[in-house]
Design brief:
Layout: H1 7-29, H2 37-50, E1 54-55, E2 67-71, E3 74-76, E4 91-96, E5 98-100, E6 103-104, E7 107-112, H3 118-136, H4 144-157, E8 161-162, E9 168-170, E10 177-181, E11 198-201, E12 204-206, E13 212-214, E14 221-223, E15 229-231, E16 234-239, E17 242-245
Antiparallel strand pairs: 1-5, 2-4, 3-14, 4-7, 5-6, 8-12, 9-10, 9-11, 11-16, 12-15, 13-14, 16-17
Helix pairs in contact: 1-2, 3-4
Bound molecules: magnesium ion.
């Protein structure tokens, strides 16, 4: 069931989104050779807590950290670790979320650790651009399939693949609500977009095969062929004035 948000609830979600975005940027600024993913997670947790919010990933299922930090061939749900030290040339996907006044924020970005390969840069550029292609379709009267189609078409035209096993989602009082927001689809198909819907659009894009595997820790999700993957996510409100990025620092 899709839960529409009131303007009062959207205002709270805007703040949850801002906190999530600031946490993400702080995490991104900390990405440097020699830094552990545990240290980045600590910076993110401390910022979210200082903001009067709660890290919503911590304890979700049994996730043991505040941020998912996924390096290179890890697509999503990487568990921060003192043993994982970043190296020059890594690409580092960070996913952060804050629960503020009963509502969730959720966003992700892939950061370069120092200078990265041309392929890695092109993958990150493509995935970020695909996110904005999806956001452009997040309009009243469109359907979920319009978003997925726009993402998929852009990504595949550039020779990459979109992950199928994990998708975007509605967001609200719960971190994951209806509807599912796949990064693939058919125009004009799926749930109709209505004012007051809030969705997380989050393309996960692989250089090679779209298939992924989940490691024995139950979380870490990697590309099946070991090739690179990138992940960008914004939380969007559907309004009569067009899509509004709730996880933005700009008004
Ligand atoms: Mg999400």
């Amino acid at each position: 069931m899709v839960i529409l948000k009131t303007s009062r609830e959207l205002a709270i979600m805007r703040e949850a989104g801002r906190i999530s975005q600031r946490a993400l940027r702080l995490g991104g600024e900390a990405v440097e050779p020699g830094v552990s993913t545990w240290e980045i997670d600590k910076i993110i947790r401390e910022y979210i807590e200082k903001s009067g919010a709660k890290p919503n990933f911590l304890g979700y299922g049994d996730f043991p950290a505040s941020a998912c930090i996924s390096v290179n061939n890890t697509v999503i749900h990487g568990i921060p670790s003192k043993k994982q030290i970043l190296k020059k040339g890594d690409i580092v996907s960070i996913d952060t979320g804050a629960l503020f006044n009963g509502f969730n924020g959720d966003n992700a970005w892939t950061f370069a650790c120092g200078e990265v390969s041309e392929e890695a840069q092109r993958l990150m550029d493509t995935t970020r651009e695909a996110l904005f292609k999806g956001i452009e379709q997040a309009r009243v009267g469109n359907r979920i399939g319009d978003i997925g189609h726009a993402v998929q078409e852009y990504v595949e035209a550039r020779g990459y693949s979109v992950v199928r096993d994990f998708v975007g989602h509605g967001v609200g009082a719960k971190l994951h609500e209806d509807p599912s927001v796949p990064n693939y689809g058919t125009p004009g198909r799926g749930v109709r977009l209505l004012p007051g819907m809030v969705i997380a659009i989050e393309p996960m894009v692989n250089v090679g095969d779209f298939r992924v595997k989940v490691l024995s820790d139950g979380w870490t999700t990697q590309t099946i062929d070991g090739k690179l993957s990138a992940h960008f996510e914004h939380m969007i409100a559907i309004t009569t004035d067009g899509p509004v990025i709730l996880t933005s620092l700009d008004d």
